User: Which sequence fits this backbone?
């Protein structure tokens, strides 16, 4: 079974207190995400990091405040997370609404995905459920995600399990 790691939207605007759409506490998961990213690279596991990439007048700003505007510091990834992975830019909360997402999956040719990042109940959820809908096995890493709403995160975990996905820890993932 082939494996790929998917680091969802761990960008400065989301993971640091000064970010435009800071997820409270997200900076605490950065060392775990750095470890997972490095593990993937050290073991030859394909690693893709998604990144919101918005124009200044992006339609998404009708729903969310402006964030991750192309070319800004906030759109970037923390240096500690950059280990040579492929960056996949997207304009929506759902990775699979991006024109080239399915082509990316075909290129990765993976059966199983390890998923982590922010925000648990929004972009992580969309990626995990989208992968499951495409027949992929999905492991969401509990200690490498951060949510805004605990109840919504718990609801996602139930939905994930019902759809055949699993929850795990970074330790267990790295011992596989």
Assistant:
């Amino acid at each position: 079974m082939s494996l790929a790691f998917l680091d969802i939207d761990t960008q400065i605007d989301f993971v640091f207190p000064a970010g435009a759409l800071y997820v409270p506490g997200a900076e605490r998961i950065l060392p775990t995400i750095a470890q997972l990213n490095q593990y993937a690279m050290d073991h030859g596991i394909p690693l893709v990091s998604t990144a919101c990439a918005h124009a200044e007048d992006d339609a998404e700003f009708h729903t969310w405040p402006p964030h991750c505007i192309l070319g800004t510091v906030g759109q970037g990834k923390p240096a500690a997370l950059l280990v040579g992975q492929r960056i996949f830019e997207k304009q929506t909360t759902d990775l699979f609404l991006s024109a080239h997402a399915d082509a990316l999956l075909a290129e990765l040719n993976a059966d199983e995905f390890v998923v982590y990042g922010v925000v648990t109940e929004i972009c992580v959820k969309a990626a995990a459920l989208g992968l499951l809908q495409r027949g992929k096995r999905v492991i969401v890493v509990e200690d490498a995600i951060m949510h805004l709403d605990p109840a919504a995160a718990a609801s996602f975990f139930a939905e994930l399990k019902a759809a055949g996905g699993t929850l795990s820890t970074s330790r267990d993932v790295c011992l596989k």
